[in-house]
Amino acid sequence: MSIGAENMTIKSISTQQAIALLAEAFMVPTESVSLNTRREDLPGWDSMGALVLIAELDERFGVLLSAEESRKLHSIGDAVHFMERNGIVSR
Amino acid sequence: MFRAESPALTGMRVPSFEATTSLVSRGLGITPSLLIDSFGPASQADLLEIVSMRAANRGAAAPWDDEAYLRWRYQLDSTKTGWGQLYVLRHQRQIIGLIGTESIVLDVDGLQRSGQRVQDILIAPHTRESGLGLWLKQAVFRDGDFTMTVGCNANSIGTVRRLYDSVARRETYVMPLDISSLLRRKFGNRSWVEPLATIGNTAAGLWRSGHQLRGSRGARLELVGRFTDEMLAGLKVQQNTLQISMVRKADHLNWRLIDNPRARYRISSAWIKDRCVGYMAASVTNALSGTSHTSALRLVDWCFAPGFSAPAVSVLLPELYHFGRANGCERITTTVLGFESDTWLGRSGFLRRPAGEFDVLGIHWSDRSFAQGQVKNLAWAMTDLAGDSDG
User: Does the beta carbon of A8 lie under 8 angstroms from any beta carbon of chain B?
Assistant: First the structure.
């Protein structure tokens, strides 16, 4: 599956790749996070981590994650579901 | 040296100022150029709104007059004197972000570099995670040779680690002034506490007296009413010291330590003949320890003439000790970064405590090649004067 965005067409990624992307954004080893990992258990998922994720989704996939939506993400699973809904992660 | 405290994972790069500008402006529904145009120095007319915003964020009244503090710190009074600058970002007529800076000059291996420390950063609650906090910092990064931050909290430690070139933990040193109150708090009123405290206080006093007699070299003590450049001339650091320290100027020290409405500093100086060979500045602070309030003397700054630390300490520290005791202080505390080559704290009876997680100093150099070069190998010598806290 591909998604269209301004000046870009990006292939979707797998759930595991999405988890790896989130782990990198929040500065933790990929193997230490799962869909069940909660936000409060990730010190790197602070305002800077959230912004790095917003910037990464915008730059790589052309998907806008608003600050309001970002604040509603409470776990890695929530973030992956957001990425599924926006065509970044293939179901 | 500046020891990095969290080098394990680097993660994704921090968005550039241009990228953050794009994200923040999009989130606010404005153009990037309007975002930049909406950011500028605060004026006296902004004061009440800023005080109200800070009070709402704190959730309680400040233990100081916040309006007087802001006027003093950010040149918002009629005198327009001082070293601070407060910037605000307005959106739809309301202030949604503010950031303060204080001009600082560093001696970097003998060369002076002008920059700033950031402080008093605040964003409106509805803008959380919009990137506004980062944007404010990046906006002021463009000014001066460097931008420094001192201290942080759980919310900002991640930003500090990612955003600044180097982040190092500062160390705390403590000298007990009254062993009996420390023992009483730990062991209660047991029969052996007072005799043991008497022995401890007597031994510490004898040790201090011996230390004082050995090193004074005829130095005498004077309290400081105002700093003068002539007085500071004798304290100049040596050139090419392979270290980074703050450049001390009389007008800055007078503003920061003497005209400060948030704290009263006791400043004493040591002289040999007509040369000032050192000074110490300290203030009494109060803290809640368990269920009781305790007082401590916080040594916020000191400076000694090269080669004269022993005579300076020999007259300054006893004065500090007696001032602390007279004001009911249990201990003298200070927080430093570096000073590997200057061991007077250990020699004088200060005990080193583990650095707190948030007791960090981060620095961002505007010259990126400079940031990656020799500066990484320089040692630091920074007192609490580097920070904006008054205890």
Answer: no
Could you give the ipTM of this predicted complex? Answer: 0.80
Dmax over CA atoms of chain A, in Å, equals 36
Instruction: List helix spans (H) across B293-351.
Output: 309-326, 344-347
Domain B172-354 fold is: Aminopeptidase (3.40.630)
CA-to-CA distance for B219 and A74, rounded, in angstroms? Answer: 63
Subunit contact A47:B27, Cβ cutoff 8 A: no
CATH of domain A2-85: 1.10.1200.10
State pTM to two decimals: 0.84
Q: Which fold has domain B17-170?
A: Aminopeptidase (3.40.630)
What's the distance, CA B6 to chain centroid? 21
Whether residues A54 and B129 touch (CB distance < 8 A) is answered with yes
The structural domains of chain B, with segments of one domain joined by +, span 17-170, 172-354
pLDDT digits (tens, 9 = 90+) for B235-292: 876 655 788 989 999 999 999 999 998 899 999 999 999 999 999 999 999 876 666 7
| pLDDT tens profile B340-361 | 656 788 888 888 887 788 889 9
Contact B173, B348 (CB under 8 A): no
